[in-house]
Specification:
By secondary structure, this protein is of the alpha/beta class. The chain contains three helices and seven strands, in the order αββββαβαββ. Helix 2 packs across helix 3.
Length: 136
């Protein structure tokens, strides 16, 4: 519908152009697709044991995971016992109240978990927690 050359101000616009709206939505969609992987944390599959008496803990800078085959990771990165000890010493010097959170697969030998707890405590970390899945 065209307008007259004189321009009658009382005429209403009866059509809406949706092309700019579609362009904006596509740009927002692309932005979400590009940034979404940045918000995902790398995870390690650990089949945690279940317990009914678990409590919430505060987030920590020392998150230690032990997989079923005995591989250790520190904050989502593969590590060995020496790296765990060095990081524990570093964090204990920064904050004497730091807490280590240990997530061990339910099939890991008890001695392996105790060994990691011993390493962390000997590095100066006084508090530790063991991650579990809350039993229903």
């Amino acid at each position: 519908m065209g307008m007259k050359a004189g321009g009658d101000l009382d005429d209403s616009i009866s059509e809406i152009n949706v092309v700019p709206l579609v362009d904006i939505i596509l740009v927002v969609l692309i932005i979400f697709m590009v940034t979404a992987p940045m918000f995902l944390k790398p995870t390690i599959n650990v089949n945690l044991p279940k317990a009914a008496s678990g409590e919430q803990t505060t987030p920590s800078q020392l998150n230690i995971s032990i997989t079923a085959d005995g591989k250790i990771s520190l904050n989502g990165v593969a590590a060995d016992e020496e790296k765990v000890k060095a990081k524990a010493m570093e964090e204990a010097q920064k904050n004497p109240e730091v807490q280590a959170i240990i997530a061990a697969d339910k099939d890991v030998a008890h001695g392996k978990v105790v060994g990691i707890i011993d390493i962390v405590k000997s590095a100066g970390v006084k508090k530790f927690a063991i991650s579990i899945d809350k039993a229903q």
